[in-house]
Specification:
CATH class: Alpha Beta
CATH superfamily: Glycoside hydrolase/deacetylase
Largest sheet: 8 strands, parallel
CATH topology: TIM Barrel
Number of strands: 8
Order of helices and strands: HEHEHEHHEHEHEHEHHHEH
Number of helices: 12
Strand content: 5-15%
Shape: globular
Helix content: 40-55%
Length: 297
C-alpha cells in the first residue's frame, strides 16, 4: 500500500517509531483503533466491547454523528478508554445523514449541491473546492465540542480522507494537534516523511484499513497478519459493529463491521497476540512523544 522503509543513508541505520516510543529494536508494536465511534448505537456498543473484552486498544469519535453524545457519555463513564477525534467532512450513507457542526452558511465549500456533506464518491469534488479556513472552522468545532465537556482525546485522524486528503489539510490538522497537545494518525508517505524529519513517531509499516479486507475468510486473514506482523510500529483501523437489525437498516458496510467485531472479541485473537509476543498500545504513548517533540512545521 505504501513504502514503509525509512529514508536513510547506508551509513545511518533506520530508527523505528517503536524505538522512539521506548521499545527495543526487535519489538512488534500494534495500535488497534476502532474507527467510527458515535455513528450509531450498534457501533458504540461494539466499540466498547472490543476494547473492554477484546484486543482493540483505542477508538476514534465521529463528533457530528447522531450517536456521538451517547459515545461521549460512554467515555465519561469509562475514563480508562483512550480515544481520538475522527475529523469528519464526509457522510457515508444516503438515508442516515449527519452534517457539519458549524452553521451551514459558514462552510458552503464543504457542502454538496443538496447542502449536505459529500458522500465518499464525492470526495474528489470536496477536496477540489474545500476552503482551508472553512475546514479549520469545522475541525475546531469538532475538537472543541469534545474538549469543552472535559473529555481528553489523545489524537486526531480523519474519516474517509487519508492524511486529510490534501497537503494543506494535513498541515492544518498537525498544527491543531500541536495546539491541543494531541498526536496525529499519519500513514501516507509524504506525511510520514515530514513527521520523521521532526523525530515524531508514525506507523513504520503498511497501514491496515479493515474495509480493504475480504469478508470471507477474514478471521484467518487477521490471524495471518498477526503472525506476519513486522518489527516496528503498525496500526490497524478496524470498524466493529454488532451487525444487528439496526446495523442492517442503516449501514451497507455492516458485514465488515460484524466480522471485525467477531475477530476482535475472539479468544483466538488474544491468544495470537500472546503467542506472537505482540505489544498492543494505544495513542496515549504516541501522544506523549508528540507532545515532547512538537509538531512538524
Amino acid at each position: 500500500m505504501n513504502d514503509h522503509a525509512f529514508e536513510t543513508s547506508a551509513a545511518t541505520p533506520p530508527v523505528l517509531s517503536s524505538e522512539l516510543l521506548g521499545f527495543p529494536p526487535d519489538a512488534r508494536v500494534l495500535i488497534v483503533n476502532n474507527d467510527d465511534f458515535g455513528m450509531y448505537h450498534a457501533i458504540n456498543t461494539a466499540v466498547v466491547d472490543s476494547i473492554e473484552e477484546g484486543i482493540a486498544s483505542s477508538c476514534s469519535l465521529m463528533v457530528p454523528c447522531p450517536w456521538a453524545l451517547h459515545a461521549m457519555h460512554l467515555l465519561r463513564r469509562r475514563p480508562e478508554i483512550p480515544f481520538g477525534i475522527h475529523l469528519t467532512l464526509v457522510c457515508d450513507t444516503t438515508h442516515y445523514r449527519w452534517g457539519p457542526l458549524v452553521a451551514k452558511e459558514k462552510v458552503p465549500s464543504l457542502l454538496d449541491e443538496r447542502g449536505g456533506l459529500f458522500t465518499p464518491a464525492g470526495v474528489p469534488e470536496l477536496l477540489a473546492r474545500a476552503r482551508l479556513d472553512e475546514v479549520e472552522l469545522e475541525f475546531r468545532a469538532q475538537i472543541d465540542a469534545v474538549v469543552d465537556t472535559g473529555l481528553a482525546p489523545t489524537h486526531l485522524d480523519w474519516h474517509c480522507l487519508a492524511d486529510g486528503g490534501r497537503e494543506d489539510i494535513f498541515d492544518l490538522t498537525v498544527a491543531l494537534a500541536e495546539e491541543y497537545g494531541l498526536a496525529v494518525r499519519v500513514w501516507l508517505e509524504p506525511g510520514r516523511r515530514k513527521s520523521r524529519r521532526q523525530g515524531l513517531p508514525v506507523t513504520d509499516n503498511d497501514f491496515l484499513d479493515s474495509f480493504g479486507l475480504d469478508i470471507d475468510g477474514k478471521a484467518a486473514r487477521y490471524a495471518e497478519l498477526l503472525r506476519d506482523l513486522p518489527v516496528g510500529l503498525s496500526e490497524w483501523a478496524v470498524h466493529p459493529g454488532l451487525g444487528n437489525e439496526e446495523s442492517r437498516a442503516i449501514d451497507g458496510g455492516w458485514r465488515v463491521r460484524r466480522t471485525d467485531y467477531e475477530f476482535l472479541t475472539s479468544p483466538e485473537a488474544r491468544e495470537l497476540l500472546r503467542r506472537e509476543g505482540i505489544v498492543v498500545i494505544d495513542y496515549r504513548t504516541v501522544q506523549q512523544a508528540w507532545s515532547r517533540t512538537g509538531a512538524p512545521r
